[in-house]
Please model this.
Amino acid sequence: MFLDDNVLYALLLTLFAGLSTGIGSFIGLFSKTTNHKVLSYAMGFSAGVMIYISFTELFFQAHHSLVGALGEKQGSWATVLAFFGGITLIAAIDKFIPSYENPHEYSDTSALEVSESKIKTLPKAKLLRTGMFTAMALAIHNFPEGMATFAGALKDLSLGIPIAIAIAIHNIPEGLAVSVPIYYATGNRKKAFWYSFLSGLAEPFGALIGYLVLMPFFNDIVFGYIFAGIAGVMVFIALDQLLPAAEEYGEHHQSIYGLVTGMAVMAISLLLFV
Model:
């Protein structure tokens, strides 16, 4: 089984989205302060892209494919069930990860800028455990995101690019959440960076598994189920993780401006390909 150009481009986009955790790691390890307003706006922007593309493109295309293959009634039911199945999957993954080790639990944003003298008073073993478990949690969470990016890009590159960008923005604070505790536990910037960076490899790995497992069976029904499920995953990420985090990092209006801008940019970019 060889990779044609479409598959290769889809894998590269997924790799880009996953390895953006390295950007967050770099910010956490080498920046003195974090610009919360920019981060808030960017995460709102990412949420806007995800919500808009989920309801106007992914859900619509999934419904079209499933109705065409299964008929109006059965296809509509299948679309809705797959959509909520995607939400259930990603919610279950988050549920079974302890909140203090979950990179999506933004309960205390001041932790991003804890002074070196203060954090050094925390037990190093606990910090290292937190960083390692966060890396594992992130890898588990990124697996379905990788499949989402890959499937979107494989079906339509113009759809895959904005999905990849939105997920890449979403991954930046996750990279920070992994690298900071590992650095302060070990004192080794290089080790902290690489653990964070490697946790992002779960996304292209998820894409590769999806390709190897699903490609032999890829048809309108499989495509419809995948896209409806991806729509559910992205809506959950936007509403449960990105928007709350955006509000935590900045002002309420900052995140909403980012949300609306993300939707507008997504709408215009899709219209350019009509």
Remarks:
- The longest helix spans residues 36-70.
- Residues 38-271 form one domain.
